[in-house]
Amino acid sequence: MAEEPIAVALRRAADLTAAGNSDAAIHVVRGVLDEHPTHSEAWCHLGAAYLDAGDAESSLDAAKQAIRHGERSWGYRLASVALMELGRRDEAVVSAREAVRRDSQDWRCHVALAEALGTDDPQESFAAACRGIQLANNEARPFEVLGDAALRVHDKETARRAYYEAIKIDPANQHARTNLVRLGRPQLGTTTTPAQAEPLVQVHLGRIEELGLWLALRRASIGLAIGSLVLMLVGMDETYSVLGWFGLVLLLFVVFVVGSAWVKFARGVPVKKTLLDHRMLAVAAGLLGLSSVLLIVWTVLVALGAQTLNPLTIVLVTSVASVVVAALAIWRRSHPK
Questions:
Q1: Are residues 80 and 1 in the same domain?
Q2: Domain span holding position 21
Q3: Same domain, 93 and 28
Q4: Residues 60, 127 within the same domain
Q5: Overall domain count for the chain
Q6: Is 105 exposed, middle or buried (0-12, 13-18, 19+ CB in 10 A)?
Q7: Which of 181, 200, 219 is at the close of a domain?
Q8: SUPFAM superfamilies in the record, alphabetically (predicted)?
Q9: CATH value at residue 150
Q10: With contact defined as beta carbons under 8 Å apart, do 149 and 126 qualify?
Q11: Based on the domain organization, do 322 and 216 belong to the same domain?
């Protein structure tokens, strides 16, 4: 069986598992493994199918085979879920931590850790769920898990907003819908997205919205810091003719990142009230604003024929300071006391 047919077979197995036809999926993957017994991804698909069939023991055995044959993190995530099903929560946490260690940029690893920690360590579970959202805020699953974690730390408002975001991304998410009803939201229809039928009245920033703004501020500040450094390095060769245009592009990038984040997370929230209630956010926004104003000044000076890099030095320093403040704030909000 060639490599491309293997990929096709595994895709078919995944579709069968998602459709609830786990027996057929197991049959398909077994056919692959008969010819390629060391194919680690196939072992993971087999483990997922066994898990869907309710056979956690066989799923764990398949996950161990995947790990043995070099699977990077999926095998550990799968083993964590299987161990939880078997009631071996401590081992599940160890396996999930190893998945995070091996692939810290995969949101699914952090979600697995959040679920494994569960009620045993609700604060760390909440932190892991927050990290999952930082890596994949366009996926419903991290929001669903964050909602569960928020309930365990008795933060009903964050749980409500997390479930609401999960349903906006995946209107068929029954787990989020059920928990929203339990939290006091009216029953949501299955054919209408809650973004239209059940808008949340936004009068202040919740944890999710604040985290979204912080991520945008960090992204914009990093872009501004790197861009100003590039401008300084290029400017040393006195090639000022095109630098002004690059500065303009940099400014548009900052406006786009911050503006789109505000529209997504804080539309309808008074700016003055937000900055007064969130002092660190005001500091970071002020530093980013100062950097942007100085970049505008420098761009205008270059357009008028000036040849100076002095304002860029301050732009670099203030944008780096904004990055530091944003990184500290994100860490604090991902690790509630």
A1: yes
A2: 1-103
A3: yes
A4: no
A5: 3
A6: exposed
A7: 200
A8: TPR-like (SSF48452)
A9: 1.25.40.10
A10: yes
A11: yes
**Distance (Å, rounded) from C-alpha 269 to C-alpha 175?**
29
pLDDT the model gives residue 113: 93
pLDDT in tens, 161-170: 889 889 999 9
Average pLDDT over residues 97-106: 91
Those residues with Cβ within 8 angstroms of residue 325's Cβ, 6 or more apart along the chain or in another chain: 280, 283, 284, 287
275 to each of 202, 251, 285, how far by Cα in Å?
15, 22, 9
Identity (one letter) of the amino acid at 121? D
Residue 277 and residue 305 in contact, taking contact as beta carbons nearer than 8 Å: no
What span, in angstroms and rounded, lies between the C-alpha atoms of 161 and 180?
9
Same domain, 269 and 178: no
Instruction: List phi, psi (to 5°) of 105.
Output: -95, 5
Write the burial class of residue 77 (CB in 10 Å: 0-12 exposed, 13-18 middle, 19+ buried).
buried
In terms of pTM, does the model score above 0.70?
Answer: no
Task: Calculate the average pLDDT of the chain.
Answer: 83
Q: Report pLDDT for 335.
A: 61
- Give residue-wise pLDDT tens across range 24-82: 999 999 988 988 899 999 999 999 999 999 999 999 999 999 999 988 899 999 999 99
